[in-house]
Amino acid sequence: MLSISRRSLGLLFAVAVAFLPALVYAGEWQLNMTEGVTSVSQSVFRLHMVILIICVVIGIVVFGVMFYSMYAHRKSRGAKAANFHESTTLEIIWTVIPFVILIAMAFPATSTLKKIYDTDNADLDILITGYQWKWKYEYLGEDVSFFSNLSEKSRQQIYSKAPKSADYLLDVDEPVLIPVGKKVRFLVTAADVIHSWWVPDIAVKRDAIPGYVNESWTLVEEPGTFVGQCAELCGKDHGFMPIVLKAVPQAEFDAWLAEKRAAATAIAEAAKQQLSFEELYAKGEEVYISRCAACHQDNGQGIPGVFPAIAGSAVATGDLASHLSVILNGVNGTAMQAFAEQLNPVESAAVTTFQRNAFGNNTGDIIQPIDIVNFQQDQ
Ligand SMILES: [Cu+2]
After folding, report:
1. What residues have their beta carbon closer than 5 A to ion ligand 1?
2. Which of 58, 111, 310, 333 is at 20 to 30 A from 81, Cα to Cα?
3. How far is the CA of 55 from the centre of ligand 1 (A)?
4. What's the 346 CA to ligand 1 centre distance in angstroms?
């Protein structure tokens, strides 16, 4: 009996030692939650500390009395157990003390919760939609909306095609910007499955649920960049849909909005151009790798039984209208989402051209941006 327990103790010790380098390697010994940068995140932190201290004190007192009693009144010392029942005084004490402790906890908890849920009088509304596996940001009333995907750099690093950088898996192609000193309301929802938009530094974590809009808000006083992640297991690439939130001065924010609007106009212009097959194919490959390959795979073989292959696909080599319909409208009830809003006409034309000519799908078809615009107008 003794030898077994000794061996398992040794094993436990060995496991603990084995994990030690991993901890050291992680380089961060931070055990507590972050204080964050907003008044809400700091209230949350203070609340957490108050409750933690209360719990620790209770733990020390209760276990202290218990261990002391067990030691001081042990049998080998000839202790005789006291035998008392129904002590009214004792019962009142052990009802009143926890009651007082609970009330003492409820006050700071309620005032913090009230602050968290006070989404009134926001200066700016951002609608955040979770998709498998990216975020869409719409600046309501500003005519600006875009998707934010895991950066190409991080995507390369996943498969060790490049050395991992400090912002590995915490880097996106399009960060979401907010102005400093302004109250920003987040309206959080999802288009497919449940996600959760979580940025610890501003203490915002809201479930993104299809058909449901959850609210939250923040007010960041100083410029800065804050990262977060999806916090609700949402499928294969759940770990690959980070959030990068940048708080910038109002002037910089306004310039950025204007730039986004100008870019949208430029894309509308580009949709009128004719592109060469090479241009479309190269652009299409880029779009395919960043937007489609997570499911259909780099080599176009898909994942049998889950994501169909593009190589030799009857859709990608057959009738163009059906192919465009799958890409632009998606396939209802499957992971194949509608890309009409996510890709501009140039990107849609490029990726369609790519799929119809790559992986041995040598149809020779060339799809121009204008074909996409016409297709969308006709349906
Ligand atoms: Cu997610």
Report:
1. 195, 230, 234
2. 58
3. 33
4. 27
* Structural domains of the chain sorted by starting position, each given as residue range(s) with its CATH number in brackets: 2-75+88-116 (no CATH), 124-267 (2.60.40.420), 274-378 (1.10.760.10)
- Tell how far the Cα of 196 is from the centroid of ligand 1, in angstroms: 6
Average the pLDDT over each of 13-27, 108-122, 176-190, 300-314 and give the range with the smallest value.
13-27
The pLDDT of residue 9 is: 74
Per the CB < 8 A criterion, the answer to whether 155 and 171 are in contact is: no
Of 127, 118, 114, which is closest to residue 217 (Cα–Cα)?
A: 118
Residue 54: which of 104, 125, 93 has the closest Cα? 104
Ligand 1 centroid distance, CA of 149 (Å): 12
End-to-end CA distance of the chain: 76
Which residues 6+ apart lie within 8 Å of 293 measured at CB? none
Q: Which residues, including other chains, have CB under 8 Å from residue 303's CB and lie 6 or more apart? A: 295, 297
Q: For residues 265 and 261, what is the distance between their CA atoms, to the nearest angstrom?
A: 6
Confidence of residue 226 (pLDDT cuts 50, 70, 90): very high
- 230 CA → ligand 1 middle, Å: 5
Q: How far is the CA of 318 from the centre of ligand 1 (A)?
A: 33
Q: Measured at the alpha carbon of residue 205, what is the angle toward residues 203 and 209, in degrees to the nearest 5?
A: 165
Q: Compute the distance from residue 361 Cα to the ligand 1 centre, in Å.
A: 32
- Burial class of 337 by CB neighbour count within 10 A (0 to 12, 13 to 18, 19+): buried
Q: Which residues have CB under 8 Å from 185's CB, separation 6+?
A: 119, 122, 124, 125, 126, 215, 216, 217
- Reduce the DSSP state of residue 73 to 3 states and report it: coil
The whole model's pTM is what? Answer: 0.76
Distance from the CA of 122 to the center of ligand 1, in angstroms? 26
